[in-house]
Design goal:
2,3-Dihydroxybiphenyl 1,2-Dioxygenase, domain 1; 39% strand; 147 residues; 18% helix; alpha+beta
Length: 147
């Protein structure tokens, strides 16, 4: 299995607005994308572009806030009330081949591929099989890779 580039780091937050202010005012975000709701995943999402080299965009941060009482992020925030790193996301060229490879290696794949926040297919691999980090695997987006 060869993972592609790190696409983003997911950060759970109790308030996207407060997190946006932090990334803008403290961390010097170069672009803050428009927040949007993803009812199918129970979250509100906002992508933030961190500064890269020579004024370019670096790695994206995906801010995720619970959307409704059934959000899977509620459990994470119950253990981490201030929020924090939720997952890391890596790109692969073929999501179905990657899923098959993870399963063949005996890794616990969480669910079937589904559309993620970038509009491309994703799945997650359990933290216990990924060095303690919930890992999102995402099919490489077509175009610029941003929402």
């Amino acid at each position: 299995m060869k993972l592609g580039r790190l696409n983003h780091v997911g950060v759970a937050t109790p308030s996207i607005e407060a997190a946006i202010a932090y990334w803008r005012d403290v961390m010097g975000a170069v672009k803050i994308h428009e927040p949007f709701d993803m009812p199918s995943q129970g979250v509100k999402v906002c992508f933030v572009d961190t500064p890269g080299e020579n004024g370019t965009a670096g790695t994206q941060i995906e801010l995720i806030e619970p959307l409704g009482a059934d959000s899977p992020i509620h459990g994470f925030l119950a253990k981490n009330p201030a929020g924090g790193q939720h997952h890391m996301c890596y790109e692969v060229p073929d999501i179905h081949a990657a899923r098959a490879e993870f399963l063949a290696m005996g890794k616990k794949v969480l669910g079937e591929p589904r559309i993620g926040a970038h509009g491309t297919l994703i799945f997650f691999v359990h933290p216990r099989d990924m060095g303690g980090v919930l890992t999102e695997i995402m099919e490489t987006p077509k175009g610029d890779g941003t929402h």
